Amino acid sequence: MSDSKISVVVPLFNEEDNVSALHKKIHLACEALRRPFEIIFVDDGSIDQTVAMCRDLRPLTLIQQRKNFGQTAAFDVGFKTARGAIIITLDGDLQNDPADIPLLLAEMDKGFDIVSGWRFKRQDSFAKRFFSRTANLLRKVLLQDSIHDSGCSLKAYKSEALKDLDLFGEMHRFIPALLELDGWRVGEVRVSHSPRIAGQTKYNWKRGVKGFVDMVFIWFWRSYSSRPVHFFGGSGMVLISLGTIILTWMAYVKIFLGESLSDRIWPLMGVFLVMLGVQFFVFGLLADMVMKNYYKMRGRMNYATKNITERL
């Protein structure tokens, strides 16, 4: 791997009208940098002429997925194929401008490990911008990351930051948040954004729902990945305590006040809460053991060391 080489990774799905122009723009932008580069297109099961349009493009590494696995999977295979010290990502719809790549690299030179683009002036429909801003607000509340626009695909990463990262679901938009959890420095720079002039958008409400679920997962991982027993065990103890209080109250009513409990739901509620609390607590213990095995199998711990300096 060259210390100065740049890898540009672009996922494609039915972008036959955009790939040639996109490749040309990327090629011009990278040549202007005067450093080694590679362009990686990941075709995510296109059913149009996207692959055919890519065959005459040079230089290009074309990865063809067997079917449409989604943008996250396309980014993941692109990252694992890239050989550059810095990996640049962008969408294949020409809405991200490759001419902004130098802005990302300049910001990275300030000491950041990841630099995310911020589409300050979005060129999308009102509905798309509304859902995007809602998602960004939820992300800020749950993940508390340091960027404004996680949905912008124009990003720059140091390859070492992506080395131990495996992506699933719709997690590609949360990569900066995931890496920030491990202590990597994340920066942001305003970039241009163009309206889509060809092809159709791939975003819909289903992707939004999947993205929200992934966001909740990352929130849980951020807060409890090292000790899930604190979440499940703590919740279990709260439920057990509530159930015990209700049962103690019902026992007092029955024994000392002599009232009938046959027409009351509270005894069942108390038993239910205690049983549910025990299940939560046991699940927390099991989850804790699973997480320890997870880190052990990956040969790492729940922390990341930047460097070790020894002076004799």
Brief summary:
This protein has 312 residues and is α/β, with parallel strands linked by helices. It is 47% helix and 14% strand.
Structure description:
Helix 5 packs parallel to helix 8 (205-224) and helix 9 runs antiparallel to helix 10 (266-297). The model has no long low-confidence stretch (mean pLDDT 86). With 312 residues, the protein is α/β, with parallel strands linked by helices. The protein has a 7-stranded mixed sheet, sandwiched between helices. It contains 10 helices and 7 strands. 32% of the residues are buried. The chain has helices spanning 19-33, 50-54, 71-81, 101-108, 126-143, 159-162, 175-181, 205-224, 229-255, 266-297; strands spanning 2-12, 37-43, 61-64, 84-89, 114-119, 155-158, 186-191. It is elongated. It folds into 2 domains: 2-224, Spore Coat Polysaccharide Biosynthesis Protein SpsA, Chain A (Alpha-Beta Complex); 229-297. Strand 2, helix 2 and strand 3 form a beta-alpha-beta unit.
Order the strands across the largest sheet as they lie in space: 3-2-1-4-6-5-7
Task: Give me the secondary-structure category.
Answer: alpha/beta
Please compute the radius of gyration using only Cα atoms: 25 Å
Total beta-strand segments: 7
Low-confidence stretches: none
What fraction of residues sit in β-strands?
A: 5-15%
The CATH first-level class of the largest domain comes to: Alpha Beta
Cα distance spanning the termini: 32 Å
What portion of residues is helical?
A: 40-55%
CATH topology of the largest domain: Spore Coat Polysaccharide Biosynthesis Protein SpsA, Chain A
> Any guess at the CATH architecture of the largest domain?
Alpha-Beta Complex
Identify the quaternary structure here.
Answer: single chain
Pattern of helices and strands? EHEHEHEHEHEHHEHHH
C-alpha geometry: elongated
**Discrete helix count:** 10
What does the average pLDDT come to?
86
Largest sheet: 7 strands, mixed
